[in-house]
Amino acid sequence: MDKNSRIVIYKIIFWAVVISLLHLINLSNNLFFHTLVELFSVIIAYVIFLVAWESKTFLENRYLLLIEISCFFFGTLDLLHTLSYERMEIFPVAYIEGVGLTAFKVISRLSADVLSIFTIFSAIVFSEKLHV
């Protein structure tokens, strides 16, 4: 068995263990699993923002910068969605009738979609003027 096939086997075993642990966490404590998965998406959004912020001097295409900076906004809304989960009771007013839980998620996804459409159309319209 060569070194590359060993690495592939180790990766498969690692991800099988990770998925099994996540499944066991979901079965035993749904709140912890929900928080863990949502925080993972928040961390990804913030990392995208940090990469964009540090590379803004190198970017020639400002539309990419707009999308990447908006990831900070979407990550913050996802964080508020995570913290407004009913059984966490961090925002006591937010979980009345489940309004806060759904509102943050819907606002986050809707604003991401609107920004994506806006960026695509503005890139098409202004591409000749900006030489993108």
Total domains: 1
Radius of gyration: 20 Å
* Low-confidence runs of at least 5 consecutive residues: none
Whole-Å distance between the termini?
A: 50 Å
Indicate the structural class: mainly alpha
**Strand residues, percent:** under 5%
Number of strands: 0
Mean pLDDT: 80
Biggest pleated sheet? none
Oligomer: single chain
* CA-based shape: flat
The SSE string, one letter per element, is: HHHH
H/I helix tally: 4
Helix content: over 70%
Give the topology.
Blueprint: H1 3-28, H2 30-54, H3 62-83, H4 99-130
Helix pairs in contact: 1-2, 2-3, 3-4
How would you explain this protein's 3D organization?
This protein is mainly alpha-helical and 132 residues long. It has one domain (29-130). It has 4 helices and no strands. The chain has helices at residues 3-28, 30-54, 62-83, 99-130. The longest helix has 32 residues, at 99-130.
Brief description of this entry?
This protein is mainly α and 132 residues long. It has helices at residues 3-28, 30-54, 62-83, 99-130.
Salient structural properties:
single chain; 132 residues; mainly alpha; flat
